[in-house]
Design goal:
By secondary structure, the protein is α/β, with parallel strands linked by helices. Helices cover about 50% and strands about 5% of the residues. The chain is built from 27 helices and eight strands. The strands form two sheets. The protein has a five-stranded mixed β-sheet, with helices on both faces. A three-stranded antiparallel β-sheet has the order 1-3-2. Helix 5 runs antiparallel to helix 7 (about 130-140), helix 12 packs antiparallel against helix 13 (about 245-265) and helix 16 (about 295-310) packs antiparallel against helix 17 (about 315-330).
Length: about 550
Amino acid sequence: MPNQPITTDPPPLYYLDNFQQALDWLQTRYADLLTAQERDFMRQFVLLPVSSRALLVRLIMRKGPHFRSDRLRYPEIGCIPTAAGPLLELDRLRDSQPLDAEQLGQLLRREELAALLPAATVRSGRRKPELIAKLAATQPQPRPFRQWCPGHTASLFTLLVGELCETLRLMFFGNLSQGWEEFVLAQLGIFRYEQVELGPDSRGFHCREDIECYRHLHRCRQALDEGMAAGEVAGLLDEQRPDNPWLASRLARLQFNLARQLEREEQLEAALALYQRSGWRGARQRQIRILEKRRDHVRAHALVQQALAEPEDDAEMQRVLRAERGLARQLGRPPRAVAGKADSPRFDLVLPGPHPLGVELAVREHLSSDQAPVYYVENSLITGLFGLLCWEAIFAPLPGAFFHPFHSAPADLHSPDFHSRRRQAFDRCLARLESDSYRQHLRHIWRHKQGIQTPFVNWALLSEELLEMALHCLPARHLQLWCQRLLADLRAHRTGMPDLIQFWPQQQRYRMIEVKGPGDRLQDNQRRWLDYCARHQMPVEVCYVQWTR
C-alpha cells in the first residue's frame, strides 16, 4: 500500500483501487476467518463491471442504506441505472425495498413530503418532522418508493451488503472508528503514518468469536449512547466472557462506564455488582465510595486495606489514603501513618484581566523575557520528548500491536503489559540519556518523523525552537525520571503536568509552573505530578493569580 503522499489529485477511481487493496489484504490475512458469504462477495466483486464496482463502493462509503438515484452524481461512473443493473441481479442492491414514513421522510425534501398529503391538511410553515408524523399517521404501512411517489423520476436503491462490508471494515482496521477514507487521507498527505513492518499474521482478530464479540460490545455501547437504560445494557453483557485480552479489556471498560451511570442514578446495589465484575482501573475505588455512602464501613475498610497493600496506581493510593482516614475514625481505629509530602513552592501574581486568552497566557506574557522565555506546554512537552526518545519502542512491530498501515498508535497502548512487552526496547531508548547522544537522536527523530501521527508528539506545539531550548536546559536525569513515570501508567500519567515552562538558557536551567486562576484548585492528577517533581528535586512552582479590579 502506498505510504508516500501523491502530489496531484487522486485518479478518478482511487476509492475503488483502495477498496480492492483492502479486500486483497483481508484475503491474505483473514482467509481462515471469512464466512462463505464474505468469500462469495469478494469473488463476485472482481467479476463485476468497473462502473458497478465503483458505484457499490461509493454507496458503501456513504450513509445509507437508502439512496435516491438523482442524488448519485459520479462522472467517472457514468449512467447510474446501468451501473446498478448487475448489482441488482446479484442482490447487492434492491430497488423495491419497502419504506415506512420515517424512512421516506429522510429521503424527501419538505415540499416533496407536503405533496403526498392532502393540501387542506398542510398548513404553511409546517416543519418537516410534523409532515413526517402526519404521513405516518395517515399511511402507516411500509411500501416501495415507487408506490409512495408514483410520478417521481428518481429510483431508490437500497444497499443490502452494508453489514457485511462493515464487518470487513472491522476486520481490516480492528475497530469501527476508522473508515475507508483513511486510504485517500494518507495518499493526499493529510495524515501520515509510521511505516511498521506488517507480516501475513498481522491481524487484530484470531477467531470469528472475537469479531462477533467486538460487534456486540460496540452495539451495547451505541445503545447506551442512544439512551437505553444502563441496567438493560448491562443485562446484554451477561454472557460475554472473551478470551482475547484486548476484548476483555473493552468489556471491562464498558462495564465500568455502565456502573458509573448506575451510580449516578442511585442504583447503588447494581452499580456495586457491576464494578466488582468489571475490574477496570478505578473500579475498586468506586466500590469503596459506594460502601461509604451506604455506611458499610467494615467492607469499605477491607477494600481500602487491599488497595493499600497492592495499589493499582498512585491515583488509587492517593484516593484510598484519603478514604482510610475517614473510615478509621468511623471504626475507632488509628489512621495509617502517611509520609509527609514535599510541597511545591508557590507565588502569587496580581494581573490586569481577566485575560481574553486565559490565565495561563496572562502569566506567560507577564513572566517571559528575552533572557528567560516562557512557553505554554501543559501536557505536550514532556510527552513529546518521551515520544521522540522512545519512538522505535512505541512503534515496535510486536504481534497484536499493528495490523494495518493506518495506526497512529499501537493497539495495545493502554494494555497493562504494554511496557513489559517492550521492556528491552524501552531500556535501550532510555540508555541514550547516559550520554550526550540522546540530543542528536531527538533532533533526528524530530526532523525525519515530522507530521507522522503519534499519540505523544504534538508537532504544532513542539517547534524546533522549543525542542532546542529543552535539550539545552533540561537535565537528562529529569527526562529519564519523567519517562519512567509515563511508562508506569501511560493513560493516567500523561495528564496533570504543569502548564508553563520557563528557561534560562545562559544558566542552562528551567522551572515548571502550574497556574491557578481565581477560585481554581489543584486537581488530584496535578497534585501527583507536583509531588513527583518535588520528591525528585525538580524545579516546579504553583502560581496563584488574582485579577486587578
